[in-house]
UniProtKB/TrEMBL annotation:
This is Porphobilinogen synthase.
Length: 113
């Protein structure tokens, strides 16, 4: 299945695009110097929890890249921070556990290794 979202960041702009239900792309550009506190957060949509990248741009909160994995969000935040984006890097004590879950799944016996 083709992706319905994309993100590209360089030293001056962050480009984000999302394909609508009808197949049309909606693209948005954000100036890097105006982006504040980009981070991975968990949002509640009804009863579902969805991980997203969130940031504040000119006083408005934007959520992009829904259902992003933990390792992908780590790489994106580290890369964006290197390009000058105000990104909050993940220094979570549970980070090794999340990486292990993504690599091996939930139903792995930790004592079998």
């Amino acid at each position: 299945m083709p992706s319905v979202q994309f993100m590209h960041c360089d030293a001056s702009e962050l480009h984000y695009g999302r394909r609508s239900f009808w197949g049309r792309w909606r693209r948005t550009r954000f100036a890097v110097e105006k982006i504040a506190a980009m981070q991975r957060v968990i949002r509640m949509y009804g009863k579902a929890t969805v991980p997203v990248l969130s940031f504040v741009y000119e006083g408005k909160t934007y959520d992009i890249l829904e259902t992003i994995s933990f390792t992908a969000s780590e790489r994106i935040l580290t890369s964006c921070k290197a390009l000058g984006v105000d990104a909050v890097e993940l220094h979570d004590e549970a980070a090794p556990m999340f990486r292990d879950i993504e690599e091996n799944g939930w139903l792995v016996n930790p004592w079998s290794r």
